[in-house]
């Protein structure tokens, strides 16, 4: 394990994974708070379809990842109300995207699989240990920018999330914020797919945020907790995979995130006890 920790591929995975987890924790918290987890699930499948489309056309899979996740995120937001997609819209787009994914997968496997035989598998299950120096730098920059933008819009987005009508009446651009948030969700899905894969992406978005929501009712404390848990779970998963090389890193990361979320059911939050009437004087 000591020899693995000193390798360049592990340091690249740790650096890129830290920033990707940070972005997932911040974005995922608002996904949970806005009841849009289904959107994250849909975009995880969109990521696979976009990557397969790019590979089938002979392009870089990252182009397909980001174009598809951001574009479809905006599409389902536009079909919903006030930039907030509803389940019916997401379900319809979901079915359409899965059909396209099967179509592009067929084209890719029959025409271009010899050139990049493992690309499809890496999209599904991630390849965080396969990131080289340039890919790590790009991942850090993109995930860092996403995290910064989430923090910039956090306060008005929280206002629009908790009371949309009042926020709109106060002049908060609710619809623009909704679309902007979906762009960030799409970009996060595209970037995180390279780390944990499209099949496991939802876990990294939802598990840390779900644990944070269970542990605290305070929004900004929950936001920080979600980001912190995501980063710690990423570190724990990578170290677990290094200690047991037969464990795929994506599985180890998701197993750690799931264990932390399950542990929150053992924690009971203390709720304030309402003050009763003072006893009458004797």
Automatic annotation (TrEMBL):
Keyword field contains Transmembrane helix: yes
Pfam families: ABC-3
Membrane topology, from the record: Multi-pass membrane protein
GO BP, sorted A to Z: response to zinc ion; transmembrane transport
Subcellular location(s) per record: Cell membrane; Membrane
GO cellular component terms given for this protein: ATP-binding cassette (ABC) transporter complex
UniProt similarity note: Belongs to the ABC-3 integral membrane protein family.
Name of the protein in question: Zinc/manganese transport system permease protein
Transmembrane segments: 12-32, 52-76, 88-108, 138-160, 172-189, 195-215, 222-244, 250-267
Keyword list, A-Z: Membrane, Transmembrane, Transmembrane helix, Transport
SUPFAM superfamilies: ABC transporter involved in vitamin B12 uptake, BtuC (SSF81345)
């Amino acid at each position: 394990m000591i020899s693995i920790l000193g390798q360049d591929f592990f340091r690249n995975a740790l650096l890129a994974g830290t920033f990707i987890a940070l972005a997932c924790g911040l974005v995922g918290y608002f996904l949970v708070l806005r009841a849009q987890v289904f959107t994250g699930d849909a975009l995880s499948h969109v990521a696979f379809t976009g990557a397969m489309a790019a590979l089938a056309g002979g392009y870089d899979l990252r182009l397909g990842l980001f174009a598809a996740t951001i574009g479809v995120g905006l599409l389902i937001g536009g079909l919903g109300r006030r930039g907030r997609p509803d389940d019916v819209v997401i379900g319809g787009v979901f079915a359409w995207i899965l059909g396209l994914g099967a179509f592009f997968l067929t084209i890719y496997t029959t025409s271009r699989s010899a050139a990049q035989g493992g690309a499809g598998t890496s999209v599904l299950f991630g390849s965080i240990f396969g990131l080289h120096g340039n890919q790590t730098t790009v991942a850090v920059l993109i995930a860092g920018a996403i995290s910064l933008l989430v923090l910039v819009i956090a306060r008005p987005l929280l206002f629009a999330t908790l009371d949309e009508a009042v926020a709109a009446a106060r002049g908060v651009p609710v619809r623009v914020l909704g679309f902007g948030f979906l762009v960030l969700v799409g970009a996060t899905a595209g970037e995180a797919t390279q780390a944990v894969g499209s099949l496991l992406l939802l876990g990294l978005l939802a598990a840390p945020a779900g644990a944070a929501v269970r542990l605290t009712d305070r929004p900004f404390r929950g936001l920080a907790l979600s980001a912190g848990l995501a980063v710690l779970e990423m570190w724990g998963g990578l170290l677990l995979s290094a200690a047991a090389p037969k464990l795929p890193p994506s599985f180890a990361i998701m197993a750690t995130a799931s264990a932390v979320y399950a542990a929150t059911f053992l924690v009971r939050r203390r709720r304030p006890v309402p003050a009763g009437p003072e006893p009458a004087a004797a």
